[in-house]
Amino acid sequence: MRPGADHGRARSLAAGVDSRTEEVSGRADVIRAVRVDFVHARVTLLAFPRDLWVTIAGLEDQGIYEQRVNAAYVYGDLYRGDGMGPSVLAQTLYANFGLEVDHYVALTMGSFAEAVDALGGVDFYLDKPVDGRSQGLIYFDAGRHHLNGDQVVKFSRIRYPDTDFHRIQRQTQMLMALRDRALEPENWAKIPGLVKTFLASTATDLSSAQIASLICLLPKVKPEAIQSLSVTREMTTSWTTNTGANVLLPQVDRIRELVAGFLRGEETSAISD
Description:
There is one protein chain. By secondary structure, the chain is of the alpha+beta class. It has helices at 71-80, 85-97, 109-118, 149-157, 164-182, 191-200, 208-217, 252-264; strands spanning 9-17, 28-37, 42-48, 53-55, 66-68, 103-108, 122-126, 130-131, 139-140, 143-147, 202-204, 226-230, 236-240, 246-250. It has a single domain, classed as Aminopeptidase. It has eight helices and 14 strands. Helix 4 runs antiparallel to helix 5 (164-182). The two termini are 31 Å apart.
């Protein structure tokens, strides 16, 4: 990701994979495009719900045509070879919604938890309780919390009794809290070790130098210069497949318009459910 490659801007696809092992293989249950503007020190995030029902790109020869978007990652590894999950996911997002990216980053829940623990956990405030017990996770009271890596992962996975749209909002809040934690002075000395750990446990085509440039940019990006966008409930229609799966049919034109604005770097109010 070179600042001069696109007039000081770069676009990456970030995927959180549901693997419980060190291997970065599985379904991409967290999918976000990230646009970094090095010139103006701005970052824009664009979230895609995991249950979007889409055409999976390039797997017609395997008899695979439509599926949840999060399945594109695991299908890439299964049918195109190890390490091809990010490519098939990126191709799928481009074919359906016109998303273009330059790089990718994919990490497991375990590697994300390790990064949080390396920062000493994260402080987080909830204005209302979040109950994950129906998923075998944790009940979080309203109020202030100090969460370790395992607790952050469990919190970020909760999607019942509400929806994946609410989960996306909670994940965004958590990312902002992690940014604040990373910028605390006592954590700066940990950055070189974090980069080394990150590269060892993450699938990415970013080099150490490119990751270092992103880290150097982080203190310059003010909270108001971070924009969080999402495909919203209004851009989808709930649908049940013939196998009984509850999925989201995308309103393709509306999502393509959202993606086009993201790619152009349009400054808009954050879009939420």
